[in-house]
Amino acid sequence: MSAPLAGLRFSLAGPGKVGSSLARWATAAGAELVAVAGRGALENLDTGGQDLLLLALPDAALPAAAAALARRPQAAVALHTSGSLDASAIEALRQAGSAVGSLHPLKAFPEPLPEAAEAHGVFFAVDGDPAARELAARLAVAWGGVPGEVPPAARPLYHFAATLAAGGVVTLLAAAGEMGRRLGLPEAVARGYLELARGAMAAATRALDAGRPLATAITGPVARGDAATLRRQIAALQASAPDKLPLARALARETAHQREELGEDLAAVREELGGIEP
Ligand SMILES: NC(=O)c1ccc[n+]([C@@H]2O[C@H](COP(=O)([O-])OP(=O)(O)OC[C@H]3O[C@@H](n4cnc5c(N)ncnc54)[C@H](OP(=O)(O)O)[C@@H]3O)[C@@H](O)[C@H]2O)c1
Fold first, then answer.
1. Which residues contact 71 (CB under 8 A, 6 or more apart)?
2. Residue 270 CA to chain centroid, in angstroms?
């Protein structure tokens, strides 16, 4: 059986963390990487006759880069990798004749991740012209990922939710570790909270795999309607970490909301939450 992207010829603008990774995944799936252009070399990049021009540049640089690239012949399809911007960020390339779109890997790249296995199971947000969406979905499937359309109007909140799911979780772990330090607890407790979170992620994964809502995997006093424990936690926060009360209140209310969506009655917890100072 031939490689899924055999015969596909492409070039990369922006060989940074995302660009170098996606290019390696593409070549591993049989595509041919024709040219790579970093900062300063975009002006001379000519991808005419190729199937794809992949732009993995900082969001703010995309419109000007597309305008510069549009002065030369470019590939049949141009895709950028931003999550917050839609295909119109590279409108200049559309005007010049390419079908334009976006292909956003819903994955954190703190560094290049060249191993093709890194793409397995990753969601790829796709939008743009039909030919661009089609090629974007083909790439995602070839990498073992899951393509899905995220239209322009949904982009800012889709991207915010991604930040919540990745950076937000780590921010919460950092806050948990900070509380442990303030209490003079052993340094190992920070790693302990991380291991706890890992277990919670595993439980959430099992819930989704079993077709249950994610919220069924939430643990803690609010989720189980334990108002007495919540009252003691709030008192401890008021005494020792009042700066964390707004965070605690917002999280508890969101937890209650998520469980109430499942039809649970959390009136006792709601009453307790009403007592937290804003
Ligand atoms: N990092 C993530 O976790 C992640 C995840 C999903 C999507 N994305 C998206 O993917 C895109 C690229 O992100 P990245 O993290 O790969 O960025 P990056 O590692 O900083 O790489 C950006 C690349 O663009 C080049 N570049 C920077 N400014 C430029 C300019 N003004 N004109 C032309 N080229 C320029 C850089 O060249 P130099 O090396 O010379 O600066 C580098 O090759 C962004 O749209 C980002 O939102 C990022």
1. 43
2. 32
Task: Give domain limits for the chain.
Answer: 9-150, 155-212, 218-278
- C-alpha 206 – ligand 1 centre gap (Å): 34
Which residue's CA is the nearest one to ligand 1's atom 15?
A: 17
- Give pLDDT tens digits for 134-153: 999 999 999 999 999 999 99
| Residue among 218, 242, 234, 216 nearest 271 (CA) | 234
For residue 8 the two structure tokens come to: 């596909």
Residue 260, phi then psi, degrees to nearest 5 = -65, -30
pLDDT band at 275 (very low <50, low <70, confident <90, very high): low
> Under CATH, what is the fold of the domain 9-150?
Rossmann fold (3.40.50)
Whose Cα sits closest to atom 31 in ligand 1?
A: 61
CB 4 less than 6 A from any atom of ligand 1: no
